[in-house]
Write a structure and sequence with these properties.
This protein has 148 residues and is α/β, with parallel strands linked by helices. Helices cover 39% and strands 14% of the residues. α1 (17-28) links the parallel β1 (10-13) and β2 (36-39).
């Protein structure tokens, strides 16, 4: 488990545990080590967000990969919930979905997604995608400082 003080580089919220494992394997192959964490359902992620003393500091994640089609609390409901927290207003949220439906893409952007990616096929393509996404959003993108 991650220590409370430690910042999460990449948080992945995904209900397909096989894909969670694939992303974890891809993250371990990246050129820069990342503090990677995952949550396997939207309701659990929402519960962690609501917890005043969470065991996982997801409010401080540098990047969130969010599945669009989560059961229970959907990816879009969770995205709206994430955006309702002032400290997460500028946290990059990339929708990572198997859907390429233009309505899903438009809905994601309307709800505050920073980007929408269709999950690639094959481990090398997945690793390359994760590398590019993390390199941009974690290493190159200028994060908004919290202004009191």
């Amino acid at each position: 488990m991650i220590e409370n003080e430690k910042e999460i580089d990449l948080l992945y919220i995904e209900d397909n545990e096989d894909f969670v494992d694939f992303v974890g394997m891809a993250v371990r192959k990246l050129s820069t080590p990342l503090n990677y964490h995952f949550v396997t359902d939207g309701a659990k992620a929402k519960q962690i967000l609501e917890d005043e003393k969470p065991t996982v500091p997801i409010k401080r994640a540098k990047l969130i990969l969010l599945d669009y089609n989560l059961p229970g609390v959907s990816g879009m409901q969770l995205l709206q919930y994430i955006r309702s927290y002032p400290e997460m207003k500028h946290t990059p949220v990339v929708i990572f979905s198997s859907s390429d439906n233009p309505v899903d893409v438009a809905t994601a952007y309307a709800n505050g997604a920073n980007a929408y990616l269709v999950k690639p096929l094959g481990m090398q393509n997945l690793k390359d995608t994760i590398q590019v996404v993390c390199d941009f959003w974690i290493n190159k993108n200028q994060r908004c400082a919290q202004i009191a």
